[in-house]
């Protein structure tokens, strides 16, 4: 007989918690629910609501569907939130009533949004982004002096996090609007580092349009306009732009430009610690991960470089979950093209373990899973299960 749904959900949560070496108290704190709630769910006395399940899944760094079968997929719930994000920015330049939160409260909420973005927790972002966009925009229209510069930065950062959801889920028009909001707010920060980070994100528009040559030109202009790398912050800001330029140069089939920008990113990466954050993670490990991305973008004879990097290095736990999973997804693509389907499937599974929401929404992960299943070169049952989970069949 099949297990009772209540007991099955509790069993999966407990098993995943044990695998993460977390106590029930650890899980309760990380999920922002009571210890009594965690205990009741794990012993099968209570079924978690969708919000509670999302919080527990985020704390365990798994997709909610891994914990409870038959629940609404994260993708469906996040898509349902996109209209609210769109409505929140529809009249971004028109004054509204002042926000109820203080500047410190807004800054703290935006900080949580950034943490969720780095952890690829799109459901959490989608739930809170509409309200936070409305609040930060209202604050911008009702704040003056030096505080207004900080609020403008909060608007840009909030738009960036919301854009991560829109872009990953394929809402390209909404993503482009959020990027323009970022640019509008960045201009009001009087901070060239914020403008550099915005130029980094703007590249998504060129990726989506496959306008890679134009995107490379825009990034090179942003590099020229960015502050000279005289310290860790400025080095990280400019290095991230070089890192991004190397990837889009690869997509533009310009190996010379890709090599030039990757070399410069590597030089700047050696000057900063990985925890220097200027809108995006940057440092030696981030550059290493992007070496794989550049090699896969160039394809052909360059693929061996991706395999060589992976043979001697793997992303450390300290790297943002989205960047870690991106490395394994791109490596999987290289392994598939190199005739190593079993390795490719293993890399996809690692990516899912690290950042399930990011992996499920990544088109390359879906394409690779579908190709592997057509080739029938990996374990049929587990591969079919993975392909169903990721939406490849």
Q: Could you characterize what this model shows?
A:
It is built from 20 helices and no strands. By secondary structure, it is an all-alpha fold. It has four domains: 1-71, 434 Repressor (Amino-terminal Domain), CATH 1.10.260; 73-190, no CATH class; 198-302, no CATH class; 328-393, no CATH class. Helix 14 packs parallel to helix 16. The longest helix is centred in the middle third of the chain and has 24 residues, at 145-168. The model has no long low-confidence stretch (mean pLDDT 89).
Number of helices: 20
What is the end-to-end distance?
28 Å
Secondary-structure element pattern, one letter each: HHHHHHHHHHHHHHHHHHHH
Low-pLDDT parts are none
Oligomer: single chain
Choose one word for the global shape.
Answer: globular
Taken as a percent bin, the fraction of beta residues is under 5%
What number of structural domains do the residues give? Answer: 4
Number of strands: 0
The percent range for helix content is over 70%
The largest sheet is: none
Question: How confident is the prediction overall: mean pLDDT?
Answer: 89
Q: What integer value in Å does the Rg equal?
A: 21 Å
Class based on secondary structure composition and strand pairing: mainly alpha
């Amino acid at each position: 007989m099949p297990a009772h749904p209540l007991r099955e959900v509790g069993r999966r949560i407990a098993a995943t918690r044990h695998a993460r070496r977390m106590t029930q108290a650890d899980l309760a704190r990380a999920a922002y629910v009571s210890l009594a709630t965690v205990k009741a769910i794990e012993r099968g006395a209570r079924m978690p609501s969708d919000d509670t399940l999302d919080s527990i899944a985020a704390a365990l760094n798994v997709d909610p569907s891994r914990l409870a079968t038959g629940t609404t997929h994260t993708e469906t719930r996040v898509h349902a939130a996109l209209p609210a994000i769109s409505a929140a920015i529809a009249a971004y330049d028109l004054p509204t009533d002042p926000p109820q939160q203080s500047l410190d409260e807004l800054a703290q909420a935006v900080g949580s949004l950034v943490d969720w973005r780095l952890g690829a927790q799109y459901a959490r972002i989608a739930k809170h982004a509409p309200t936070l966009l409305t609040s930060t925009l209202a604050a911008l229209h009702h704040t003056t002096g030096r505080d207004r510069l900080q609020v403008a930065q909060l608007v840009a950062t909030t738009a960036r996090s919301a854009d991560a959801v829109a872009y990953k889920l394929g809402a390209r028009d909404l993503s482009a609007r959020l990027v323009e909001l970022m640019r509008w707010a960045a201009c009001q920060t009087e901070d060239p580092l914020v403008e550099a980070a915005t130029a980094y994100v703007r590249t998504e528009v060129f990726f989506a349009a496959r306008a890679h040559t134009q995107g490379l030109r825009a990034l090179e202009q942003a590099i020229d306009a960015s502050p000279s790398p005289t310290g860790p912050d400025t080095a990280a800001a400019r290095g991230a732009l070089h890192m991004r330029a190397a990837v889009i140069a690869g997509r533009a089939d310009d190996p010379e430009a890709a090599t030039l920008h990757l070399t410069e990113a590597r030089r700047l990466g050696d000057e900063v610690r990985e925890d220097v954050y200027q809108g995006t993670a940057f440092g030696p490990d981030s550059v290493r991960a992007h070496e794989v991305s550049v090699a896969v973008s160039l394809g052909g004879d360059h693929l061996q470089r991706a395999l060589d990097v992976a043979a001697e290095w793997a992303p450390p736990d300290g790297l943002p979950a989205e960047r870690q999973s991106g490395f394994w997804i791109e490596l999987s693509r290289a392994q598939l093209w190199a005739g190593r389907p079993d390795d490719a499937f293993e890399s996809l599974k690692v990516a899912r373990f690290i950042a399930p929401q990011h992996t499920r929404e990544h088109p390359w992960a879906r394409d690779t899973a579908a190709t592997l299943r057509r080739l029938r070169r990996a374990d049929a049952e587990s591969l079919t299960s993975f392909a169903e989970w990721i939406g490849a069949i």
